[in-house]
């Protein structure tokens, strides 16, 4: 009796805490599993909260030439051609109003912003803690944030943790903008209704692949819409509890080749 074919036509992977290890590298085992999955007929799409300028070097290192979904779904990026296929920007007047309303509830926030475009800079103001190793430009005056089109804002509070800040922000401005927690210390303000799922659905349509043919891997609450869209959602062992609660299964951590563990099992059955 012949083995069943590989059950998915699309493998969607988050980057940080999922495909990437803590040192921003991808293990050889995981690389080989993804190559084997693509050889079996599945496309691989990276779906990340990082905007293109913070993603491009990783994709180039992977030899990734396909479509990537970046900026929390705002950008569909052709990695081979180094160009944006689609891009959604944040209404800056609406974002400024949302920021004002959140600060009226919790006090002053530290602010960063991601400018639109393949080469869009990430800007950060006083008090904002940028993750080490990520390029960003310091602004003494955060008024300069608003001078060019943006994909999203990042907010931090000097005392509130990210879970609490997300909860307060959603209660306060959830009818104006999207609020997501994308990682430790990373709370983002997005266009209302934008998610990784909306970006991935656009990318998948270009490939002629359906949600029912997709397996997705992630680790943070911003991956919840991704799991809602895909047929099968796999949370990493290191994932946030909110994502594990909606996952179809939990694999090993990003440091223990969690993606490879699942793909190897599926390939073994193929």
Walk me through this protein's architecture.
This protein is an alpha/beta fold and 270 residues long. It has nine helices and 14 strands. The protein has helices at 15-19, 28-39, 52-62, 92-106, 162-173, 196-207, 224-229, 241-244, 258-269, and strands spanning 10-13, 43-47, 67-70, 75-78, 83-87, 110-115, 122-124, 137-138, 150-156, 177-183, 186-191, 214-218, 232-235, 249-250. The strands form two sheets. The chain has an eight-stranded mixed beta sheet with strand order 5-4-3-2-1-12-13-14. Strand 6 and strand 7 (122-124) form a beta hairpin. Helix 2 packs parallel to helix 9. It is globular.
Write the topology of this structure.
Blueprint: E1 10-13, H1 15-19, H2 28-39, E2 43-47, H3 52-62, E3 67-70, E4 75-78, E5 83-87, H4 92-106, E6 110-115, E7 122-124, E8 137-138, E9 150-156, H5 162-173, E10 177-183, E11 186-191, H6 196-207, E12 214-218, H7 224-229, E13 232-235, H8 241-244, E14 249-250, H9 258-269
Helix pairs in contact: 2-9, 4-5
Major β-sheet profile? 8 strands, mixed
Which secondary-structure class do the elements indicate?
alpha/beta
Could you tell me the strand content as a percent range?
A: 15-25%
For the largest sheet, list the strands in their spatial order.
5-4-3-2-1-12-13-14
Helical proportion? 25-40%
- Tell me the span between the first and last alpha carbons: 12 Å
Overall mean pLDDT score?
A: 94
At a glance:
With 270 residues, the protein is α/β, with parallel strands linked by helices. It contains 9 helices and 14 strands.
Which key features would you list for this structure?
alpha/beta; globular; 9 helices; 270 residues; eight-stranded mixed beta sheet
């Amino acid at each position: 009796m012949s083995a069943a074919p590989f059950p998915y036509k699309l493998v969607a992977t988050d980057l940080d805490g999922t495909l990437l290890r803590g040192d921003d590298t991808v293990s050889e085992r995981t690389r080989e599993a993804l190559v084997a999955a693509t050889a079996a007929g599945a496309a691989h799409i990276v779906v990340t909260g990082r905007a293109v300028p913070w993603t491009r070097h990783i994709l180039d290192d992977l030899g990734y030439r396909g479509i990537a979904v970046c900026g929390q779904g705002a950008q569909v990026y052709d990695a081979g051609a180094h160009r944006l296929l689609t891009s959604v920007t944040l209404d800056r007047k609406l974002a400024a109003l949302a920021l004002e309303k959140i600060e009226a509830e919790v006090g002053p926030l530290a602010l960063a912003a991601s400018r639109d475009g393949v080469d869009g800079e990430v800007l950060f103001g006083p008090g904002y803690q940028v993750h080490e190793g990520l390029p960003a430009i310091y602004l003494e005056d955060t008024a300069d944030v608003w001078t060019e089109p943006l994909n999203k804002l990042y907010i931090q509070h000097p005392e509130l943790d990210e879970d609490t800040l997300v909860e307060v922000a959603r209660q306060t401005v959830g009818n104006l903008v999207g609020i997501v927690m994308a990682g430790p210390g990373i709370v983002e303000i997005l266009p209302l209704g934008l998610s990784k799922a909306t970006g991935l659905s656009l990318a998948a349509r270009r490939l002629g692949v359906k949600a029912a043919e997709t397996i997705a891997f992630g680790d943070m609450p911003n991956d919840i819409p991704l799991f809602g869209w895909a047929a099968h959602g796999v949370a990493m062992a290191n994932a946030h509890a909110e994502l594990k609660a909606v996952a179809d299964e939990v694999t090993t951590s990003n440091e223990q080749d969690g993606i490879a563990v699942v793909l190897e099992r599926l390939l073994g059955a193929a």
